[in-house]
Amino acid sequence: MKKKVVSAILSAAMVASLITGCGGSASNGGAASEAAPASEAAPASEAAAPASEAAPASEEAPAADAADTAANGDMTIGIAMPTKSLERWNRDGSYLEEQFKAKGYNVELTYSDNKIDQQVKDIEGLIADNVNLLVVAAIDGESLSQVLAEAKESGIPVLSYDRLIMNTDAVSYYISFDNYTVGTLQGQYVIDQLDLDNAGDKTYNIEFTAGDPADNNAGFFFNGAYDTLKPYIDKGTLVIPSGQSSFEQVATKQWDTATAMTRMQNILASNYSDGTQLDVALCSNDSTALGVTQAIESDYAGTNTVIITGQDGDEANLANVVDGKQSMTVYKAVANEAVATIDLADAILKGETPDAGLIDNAGWSFDCAYDTESYDNGTGVIPSYLLVPTVVTKDNIQTELVDTGYYTMGDDGYPHPVQ
Ligand code: BGC
Predict the structure, then answer these.
(1) Within 6 Å (CB) of ligand 1, which residues are found?
(2) Of 160, 239, 316, 390, most Cβ neighbours within 10 A?
(3) For 365-408, what is each residue's pLDDT tens digit?
(4) How far is the CA of 285 from the centre of ligand 1 (A)?
């Protein structure tokens, strides 16, 4: 099923490039320090989905009504992404840009180099350019209240993309994956791999690495994993030799790979240099898992394979999964997150007030829940569209990532993202 969506997206990308070729759309990343030209995203050869795979447009990505598409040409979507230095946001930006363009919208896409002030400036620029709707993946969920108040005053609807933006009533909707479930999947993976329910008196050592405290998602990921493993920690089956068990202790500023590596090197030096065995490194995502894997490779004396979790399906991490250096990653199909965002934005710009009905009417082939309880940003609950994450291991890379069309398997034996 997913295959069809990706194929449809790829087809849409081709349509988009045709439209661009006719001068029908504009992309302006100029204000941002990390502008991402769409052309960088997908080489033409990759964008061409094999005809046999392409879903009929009517089935998955209803070709926008020609009149609608033309009308959309008067409207511009402002997309503010956090940084190009964390792999996934490059994919998000490209997918969103291509698909909004395929529906006839103009797009301004900014990347802010993980700098909060830069993102505020970038959003100010988008407001000044009179965009009709904003899609924002915040660097710091707490720092956008003022600039988004300006957006609200200008009547610009704001969609909080992937990360919830806090303390502002300017946000209309939140689109993400079920973030708590991402963590529970990681925790459950550890339980299954170590067969913790039948561990008897055996004990295993675990260390946690979480994400950026400025990112509202990071706490959800950590809590999902920790809550799932807590019964085994309480029982003593899982032991945390470093004693670092709170989110604050294990967080990684800006999800930075080098920061995660240094912290793990310190933990290894202080707690494992006497031959203590590390069994699990529970990492919230792939950028942190990469640093932790590097630390284990360089500074861990043990010879056992450490279970290392991750999230995103970043290219380097998937190579590590293939090589047995990382055990799993939780994959979130950002192509589908983009589809949900486009359809939601489209409905809002047509004057509708979307709710659960959007999912029923859209006919998406991926699962999505409409949630009006879980995500309170401090001004009230933000209605949320939550997609479903998937566990990817060496055993199912082919079926989950390659057969679905998200990645191609290279001649080098490693998966490479299509976009
Ligand atoms: C996203 C993750 C990503 C992390 C770092 C989070 O907000 O949900 O997918 O790994 O940011 O980029």
Answers:
(1) 86, 88, 162-163, 211, 215, 217, 255, 285, 287, 311-312, 332
(2) 160
(3) 999 999 999 999 999 999 999 999 999 999 999 999 999 999 99
(4) 7
